[in-house]
Amino acid sequence: MFRPHIPVNPLPTGIVTPLAQTHPTTGVEVRHESAPVAAAPTVPARPTVQLTPGSVLALAAGGGAVVLVVGAVLVSMLLAVAITGVSVAVIAVVLRLLIKDLHKH
């Protein structure tokens, strides 16, 4: 369970030559020789992306919308932290004054 297992590739890799076949009626072995395969020209895995003016405009609008939404979320979080800090400070001042008044009387 804790030992690494090496995966076994069930499919062969590399060049595969066909096996010799026997003719069913005569029993004579027949080999089919395949012609050498020329290497295919290298083609990029993904086609190049061509941007049209409309797609550039849509991309810019989408990016601007994302910036506005993220900015609004960050500003609202900062505002929530600031309001919480101010309220805690006010409560601390009020409690301090109350405790001081209790010690005087």
Structure characterization notes:
The protein is mainly alpha-helical and 105 residues long. Helices cover 50% and strands 4% of the residues. It has one helix at 53-104, and strands spanning 21-22, 29-30. It has a two-stranded antiparallel sheet. The chain is elongated.
Series of secondary-structure elements, N-terminal to C-terminal? EEH
Low-confidence runs of at least 5 consecutive residues: none
Mean pLDDT rating: 81
In helices, the fraction of residues equals: 40-55%
Distance between the termini: 74 Å
Task: Choose one word for the global shape.
Answer: elongated
Structural Rg: 38 Å
Spatially, the strands of the biggest sheet line up as 1-2
The largest sheet is: 2 strands, antiparallel
Structural class designation: mainly alpha
Number of strands: 2
- Helix tally equals 1
Sheet-strand content, in percent, reads under 5%
Produce a short descriptive summary.
The chain is mainly alpha-helical and 105 residues long.
Please specify the SSE layout and strand pairing.
Elements: E1 21-22, E2 29-30, H1 53-104
Antiparallel strand pairs: 1-2
Spell out the key features of this protein.
single chain; 105 residues; mainly alpha; two-stranded antiparallel sheet; 4% strand; elongated
